[in-house]
Amino acid sequence: MIEVRELTKRYGGTVAVDGLSFEVRPGTVTGFLGPNGAGKSTTMRVLLGLAAASSGEALVNGGRYAALRRPIREVGALLDAGAVHGGRKAFDHLGWIARSNGIGSRRVAEVLERVGLAGVARKRVGGFSLGMRQRLGIAAALLGDPGVLMFDEPVNGLDPDGVRWIRELMRALAAEGRTVLISSHLMSEMELTADRLVVIGRGRLIADTTVRELAARFGRGVVVRSPRPDDLRGVLTAAGGTVEEAEGTLTVTGLGVADIGDHAAAHGIPLYGMTPQAASLEEAYMELTAGSAEFGAVPR
Ligand SMILES: Nc1ncnc2c1ncn2[C@@H]1O[C@H](COP(=O)(O)OP(=O)(O)OP(=O)(O)O)[C@@H](O)[C@H]1O
Q: For 222, phi and psi rounded to 5 degrees?
């Protein structure tokens, strides 16, 4: 697991991270959200041993890493997908990392397959699109089959298919029991990907919560259409949502889009559509990070 306790990181006069505390548990995807310069990358870099804490702790599986001594069987990370030697072929790039960590080439083929790059394994990375580089970076993170994974802005620059692919991969990695921390600017993306949300601004914790809790506190409801509105209403009410009905259209508060989809699917109730709640959560996020809203940390 990942534990950040009262972490502060200063660069000269700049306080990049300011007394930050949060935890990421195994089997969950935690979305790490905050505007540019909020301190997300710095926090990950300290967790990975690439920068030293000024004070406080940033622990992975209870330990601290020294620079370049991070065991890739324990923790994998994608920090800067662009920073790959363009002259190398994808297979050789990963093969080199694998060899220096005593990992066989069979695993290289496996991770290339998992990220959908098996077909271009022998192509030079220099010709890869940003999306392909993100996939390659993720493959490198997965090489050691680690239990803890950190991805810094993995959806940056990806098209909708790429974004969907990342979302499914993150969910699958958490379902395998891994601890996943993923940073993003986009609440709309995290809403569908993350179980928990850690929102920071100016290096400080703003909210440590769930998508559901945030939707319940700030959401203006999700408009849902279904051929079986009465059944759906029963299911969503039992799940803790508040449902209002008007002319066969339900407005649900207290549950996020992903929750509603899951509950409907579990009961075999078809949905015609959900008006994306993302806009209202995005607004909530903007309010939060603008410092104009208060949000207490939610007990686990
Ligand atoms: N190596 C460094 N030297 C000096 N200042 C730094 C360094 N790294 C980060 N900072 C500063 O620390 C603050 C936090 O930056 P950080 O990159 O961690 O934020 P971020 O949330 O990851 O932002 P972004 O979304 O833009 O990547 C910023 O003010 C940044 O300028």
A: -110, 125
Atom of ligand 1 nearest to the CA of 51: 1
Tokens linked to 198: 């850690």
Per the structure block, which two tokens stand in for 213? 């809790």
Tokens representing residue 99 in the block: 């060899």
Residue in 127, 198, 187, 189 with CA at minimum distance from that of residue 158: 189
Strand-by-strand arrangement of the 222-225 sheet = 242-246, 249-253, 222-225, 273-275
Q: Whose CA is nearest to atom 5 of ligand 1?
A: 11
Question: What CA–CA distance (Å, rounded) separates 16 from 26?
Answer: 27
DSSP type of residue 65: P
Separation of CA 206 from chain center? 17
The ipTM value here is: 0.95
Task: Please list every protein residue whose CB sits less than 6 Å from any atom of ligand 1.
Answer: 11, 14, 16, 34, 36-42
Atom 30 of ligand 1, residue of closest alpha carbon = 37
Domains of the chain, first to last: 2-211 (3.40.50.300), 221-276 (3.30.70)
- Displacement of CA 211 from its chain's centroid (Å): 12
Please tell me the pTM assigned to this model.
Answer: 0.79
Classify each residue of 199-230 as buried b or exposed e, where b means 16 or more C-beta atoms within 10 Å of its C-beta.
bbbbbbbbbbbbbbbbbbbbbebbbbebebbe
Q: How far apart are CA 40 and CA 289, in angstroms?
A: 13
Measure Cα distances from 156 to 69, 78, 124, 263, 290 in Å: 28, 12, 22, 30, 22
Q: What are the average pLDDT values for consecutive 10-residue runs of the chain, which has 300 residues? A: 96 94 95 90 94 94 74 88 78 93 94 94 91 92 96 85 90 96 85 89 89 69 90 95 87 84 94 68 71 44
